[in-house]
Amino acid sequence: MSIWWSLHLRREAASVPLARRLLLGTMETAGVDPDVSYDLGVALSEACANAVEHGGDTAPGRSSEAYRVTAYLDGEKCRIEVTDSGPGFAGGTPTTRPARTDAEHGRGLCLIRELADHVHIGDKPGRGGTVVSFDKILKWREDAPLIAV
Questions:
Q1: pTM, entire model
Q2: Dist CA 146 CA 149 (whole Å)
Q3: In whole angstroms, how large is the CA radius of gyration of the chain?
Q4: By Cβ atoms counted within 10 A, which residue in 4, 78, 111, 140 is the most buried?
Q5: Tens of pLDDT along 13-32?
Q6: Which residues are within 8 A (CB) of 68 and not within 5 positions of it... i.e. 6 or more apart?
Q7: Beta pairing, strands 2-10 & 66-74
């Protein structure tokens, strides 16, 4: 079984729950275990929130109004990619340190790393921007209609 979808979203706060609901609905319909779905939903929300907050490009002639979310459920794995057109990371891939528990900023990338099995965060090749991609091995409900066999 293989399912994938891609969204081109405005960099607005309202886009974050929209992307999360689409992911959760897809996984529920496919029969993914709710705990795995929840983890991926939180990770996606954090990646989208970062794209909304930091993903703009101020260079002349460059559009900063949108970002892209792509999700792949393929066999036993889910991969999610969030791509924006922001300035990227100066010096390459960021290092993530655990934020204080009462911090309002700086927790997103740490949460993504904790909730996913494999994470890649880096600059988008060629055109600027950032790509956050993460994978998680799927678990299935016993009554899963689209389980991979």
A1: 0.84
A2: 9
A3: 16
A4: 78
A5: 999 999 999 999 999 999 99
A6: 6, 7, 8, 9, 81, 82, 83, 84
A7: antiparallel
